[in-house]
Amino acid sequence: xxxYNNTITYGEVRNSKASGYCLDQGxxxxxxxxxxxxxxxxxxxxxxxxxxxxxLGPLGSxxxxxxxxxxxxxxxxxxxxLKKCDSVSRVSQRLWDFTQNGPxxxxxxGRCMEVEMSKDANFGLRLVVQxxxxxxxxxxxxxxxxxx
Length: 148
Hints:
Blueprint (H helix, E strand, L loop, with lengths): L6 E9 L2 E7 L9 E4 L8 E4 L4 E3 L12 E4 L8 E3 L12 E3 L5 E3 L5 E6 L7 E6 L6 E6 L6
Antiparallel strand pairs: 1-2, 1-4, 1-12, 2-3, 4-5, 5-6, 6-7, 8-9, 10-11
Organism: Oncorhynchus mykiss (Rainbow trout)
Pfam family, one: Ricin_B_lectin
Protein name: Polypeptide N-acetylgalactosaminyltransferase 9
């Protein structure tokens, strides 16, 4: 994998409330981000950049690989979606603020990506965007960039 100068962190994304589960691309036909038991395959690989993009999918030698999508909060629903990064009409919908062991906050809406318990969701866990409640996220690999 090529590391871009703007990559801050990459790898599996886990929430403190459901540590055995990772952010996942889910089924290809619905573009909904989900939580799924961690397995380390490309559908669970994420890259967070200095611009605030949170991309999910294969990590490779080009910025936007065909199967890589950006996490989106369109402000309309409670479920974050995944779209091709360059097809998002309002760029701010694809930007997030994240610090290790902190919340993941949409720059567009101010809502947080969080996990809620739900009987009708896969594994009893649903990924939502809502008012922040203090949930913490971690992305496996943190890159320390050299000081210039």
